[in-house]
Amino acid sequence: MAIHISSVVASGIPRVSKDDFYNLLVGGDLVFCSGREEVSTCIERMTDSPFSHVLMAWLPAHANQWLTIEATMNRGVHVGKLSDYVDVYDGDLVLARRPILTDHEKIAELNAGFTVLEDSYDWQQEVSIVAHKLIAAVPVIHPDNRYYCSGLMYLMSLASGHPLQKPGPNLPTPEDNWTDATVLPVCAMLHSAKHSEAIGAQRRAA
Length: 206
Hints:
The protein has about 210 residues and is an alpha+beta fold. It is about 35% helix and about 20% strand. The protein has eight helices and eight strands, in the order αβαβββαβαβαβααβα.
């Protein structure tokens, strides 16, 4: 199972190139994002986690481009392109897998996600959960028909019969998804030039 890590760089998770990241992908995998934007670092700091976002990767039949299903602040629940993360994301990525799921269960999870496409991003609940961790008196807001990234992953997991953990009454954070007993890390891709150069040097030396 995945355990809490302080950073992707120091985690010891095997580092791979972009091509290897794509080659290791399996439909239904989760991609955890460690971002550098202000909103990302705020979420990471408040949840004591390197992860501010999580999405599911999938490949449609007869397609040659990996897609995502995810919830983001500017687009709500939507289908996107995984290349927006693997190719140009300003942060580090960790590929993770839930081996407990069958192919049929992965499809069931995707279908559950498709039923809430275009629902709004639940920034109110996400922000209120973070505030509640700091000040217990701050209530957690639960608006209807809105999901943030890790809450969406939890909702989808209910369709498989193997729900991700949901500590307490609130929807889970990316860190909760990450530390679920069924989630296993596969590899990490570091976007900084320094680490990309290190990977190249390791391969040349091999």
